[in-house]
Amino acid sequence: SDSASLKALPYCTQSTEPYVTREGDQGNKRECYIWDNIEAFVDNEQGVLLPTRVRRYDQVRGCVPSEANGWNCNGAPWIFTKNDGSPQDHKGSSKPKFDAFVSDIERFTLMIDHTFRRLGGMQADDH
To answer: Which of 19, 35, 95, 109 makes a 20 to 30 Å CA pair with 1?
Structure first.
């Protein structure tokens, strides 16, 4: 593998280098993981997604509408959970269970191809 050492990437917690953003501010370091093109590319109907940061949230059912509660859901239908599976009980944004950078993603080569679509849904490639 020719990917950079995590110790050399200033945005990784594995590095002792200071992380300064392009604007000159102190950046928030995150744990980094080495992903290859198989792990990093997420296929979807219209193309691919190339994530640079990965966050994971887990949820459990908050309520289930039923005859017993008048088919209502008082409260959130889904509740974010902590690492131990218990509900998050703080105000504001939910906390991810996993929050990391994909390391060395700036060295990936990205080929951009395009298609067009006309009225009626017909699609044609550019080659």
So the answer is: 19
